[in-house]
Design brief:
This protein has 373 residues and is of the alpha/beta class. The chain contains 13 helices and 12 strands.
């Protein structure tokens, strides 16, 4: 689960109302770890993470009594490379041994992608592997279906909460747990919205949209007219590609006419319009849907007679600016690779990108105008 800072005070009370027993710490959460922990603590949602156990409000594991059965929950959360080492491995093994001995059924949340098939087999031979592992990627390959390794059920996590997993467990004295796993699609037509949760999220979205619009109005006033193609700079911008320099795609059109026309017919070119139509023109979404917003902290809510969204500079920033002679041939990275796409098409936003990136590429390429038709 990845939460923008301003959403944390909204999200954790919702998780509490949904009777969440615990949350772990994934890679995106680590960047705002203290605020993440504080918001969870305020809402009464336990944060479980072996690697951050010294922080107030975090425990390495917990035990829940469910119908007389002791259910253990332990988390191997994300840890940056400089913290991975012998000490952390010792803490993980010690915590696992302790909670395994105290549990009738043990669940491991593996947001740090620590475990693999060999790890599961080694623990089974020592003091017993977890009965279920959630979030494991088994060699960095996102699981589409569950796997059973020995007596351990490895369950997939589902980006964007498009599916919900259900693990049914039957425990009888003297017998191994009997499990059955199924997934259901969270289709809005089939699963009605909780009115309290919906209102909280709608209020948050409305406040974020209002904030982005007010910020954009102030910045756009400073940037001046948008009637003509322009290169604009916002000093101190936290842009991810060109450090606050925004290259209007219309500056590229005179020399790259067919490519511009092909791009203008693509979904990339209307990415802002898509957000506005869905009522999601908020900072967390605009950072990927609007090159202008990413570089200047301002966006324009309509096309204004020209296209706005994922633009030339979003993918080709390394060769900008250049003159009529074309880009400097000595510049590395003048061709687009998958890492450029992964900045926005990550596991959470585009869960099928890794296995289907060729079709994404085909829909957006514009080196030949025919390719996008």
């Amino acid at each position: 689960m990845s939460l923008p800072d301003r959403m944390m005070p909204v999200a954790f009370p919702i998780l509490k109302s949904m009777q969440y027993c615990a949350v772990g710490v994934g890679r995106p959460d680590y960047n705002s770890l203290d605020r993440y922990i504080a918001a969870a603590k305020d809402a009464g949602v336990p944060v479980v993470n072996v690697g951050a156990r010294d922080k107030d409000g975090v425990v390495p594991y917990l035990i829940k009594q469910v119908g007389g059965v002791r259910v253990g929950i332990i988390s191997y959360g994300f840890a940056p490379p400089d913290q991975e080492g012998l000490e952390l491995r010792k803490r993980r093994y010690t915590a696992l041994k302790e909670v395994r001995e105290k549990s009738d059924f043990l669940v491991l949340m593996d947001e740090g992608s620590v475990t693999d098939e060999d790890w599961i087999k080694r623990q089974a031979e020592r003091w017993g592997a977890p009965d279920a592992i959630i979030g494991n990627r088994l060699g960095m390959s996102l699981l589409a279906q569950h796997r059973v390794i020995g007596k351990t059920w490895v369950l997939p996590s589902t980006p964007q909460t498009k599916k919900i997993g259900l693990l049914e467990v039957r425990i009888e004295p003297g017998k191994d747990p009997q499990m059955n796993y199924s997934q259901g699609n969270l289709n809005e037509a089939d699963v009605p919205e909780d009115p309290v949760v919906k209102k909280a999220l709608d209020d948050y979205a409305a406040a974020e949209i209002q904030r982005a619009a007010a910020q954009s109005a102030a910045v756009n006033q400073k940037l001046g007219s948008t009637a003509q193609p322009a290169v604009v700079t916002k000093s101190g911008s936290a842009g991810t590609t060109t450090s606050g320099v925004y290259y209007d795609s219309r500056t590229c059109a005179p020399c790259h006419k067919s490519q511009y026309e092909s791009w203008a017919a693509s979904k990339h070119a209307s990415a802002v319009k898509t957000l506005v139509a869905k009522g999601r023109d908020m900072p967390a979404c605009l950072n990927c849907h609007s090159e202008r917003y990413r570089q200047t902290s301002a966006y324009l809510p309509s096309d204004q007679g020209f296209k706005l969204g994922v633009e030339c500079a979003s993918c080709h920033s390394r060769v900008l600016p250049h003159g009529p002679a074309g880009p400097d041939k000595s510049i590395e990275g003048d061709k687009i690779d998958l890492n450029t796409c992964r900045v926005c098409h990550d596991k959470e936003q585009s869960p099928d990108f890794e296995k289907d990136h060729k079709s994404y590429w085909k829909r957006t390429r514009h080196d030949d105008v025919r390719a996008s038709q």
